[in-house]
Design goal:
zinc, Helicase, Ruva Protein, domain 3, alpha/beta, Dna Topoisomerase Vi A Subunit, Chain: A, domain 2, two-stranded antiparallel sheet, 8 helices, about 40% helix, zinc-finger
Length: about 200
């Protein structure tokens, strides 16, 4: 069966939407037709929001989380405990833990995990700035909240070997999280129990 051909501009819009993670060709078509049939201001607002995010959102100079003010609101919050740093792989993990509402420390975002096969080594991760934060002597505990999969475990072990000689307590999230799962998909109760049940890495 011959595939229907769309006008050049529409075909390009569908193609660009289909490039987004989790968006297949049928969903891309539905989104494209929705945008074309919606009032013009809907598409304009979406385009403006994308442009503004690309222009203003950057990494926090302290923790590496995505923010439009530097330092980010978490790092500048006087009610947070700067003596406990929770290390995560991705900015989405910060959002997941914040939903729990029980963690009162601060964060450090690595922007990935060690993966030799994919060419991701320590230099590609936000590790140097983490060690710089620990050098001040104010941090009592580092929670390694990397994902419970092969890459996450390898990253946690690598970081633990760097941090423990500094005399800082290093803990890992409890295994209430399913092996191979990502933090962003965990519910608040499971994630909360994992944080509360964290254990020290020997």
């Amino acid at each position: 069966m011959k595939q229907m051909q769309y006008a050049g501009a529409l075909s390009r819009l569908i193609g660009e939407l289909a490039r987004l993670p989790g968006i297949g060709s049928k969903t891309a078509q539905r989104l494209a037709f929705y945008l074309l049939n919606a009032p013009p201001e809907v598409a304009v607002r979406l385009a403006d929001a994308i442009r503004e995010a690309r222009e203003k959102v950057r990494r926090c100079s302290l923790c590496g989380n995505l923010t439009d003010v530097d330092p980010c609101p978490v790092c500048t919050n006087q009610n947070r405990n700067n003596g406990i740093i929770c290390v995560v792989q991705d900015p989405r993990d910060v959002v997941a833990i914040e939903k729990y509402r029980g963690f009162k420390g601060v964060y450090h975002v690595l922007h990935g995990a060690l993966s030799p096969l994919a060419g991701v080594g320590p230099e590609e991760l936000n590790i140097k700035s983490l060690l710089a934060r620990l050098a001040g002597g104010r941090v009592q505990e580092v929670i390694l909240a990397t994902n419970p999969d092969v890459e996450g475990d390898a990253t946690a072990l690598y970081l633990a070997r760097l941090i423990k000689p500094l005399g800082i307590k290093v803990t890992r999230l409890a295994r209430g999280l399913p092996v191979g799962a990502h933090l962003e998909y965990a519910d608040e109760v499971t994630l909360g129990r994992a944080i509360e049940g964290r254990r020290e890495i020997e």
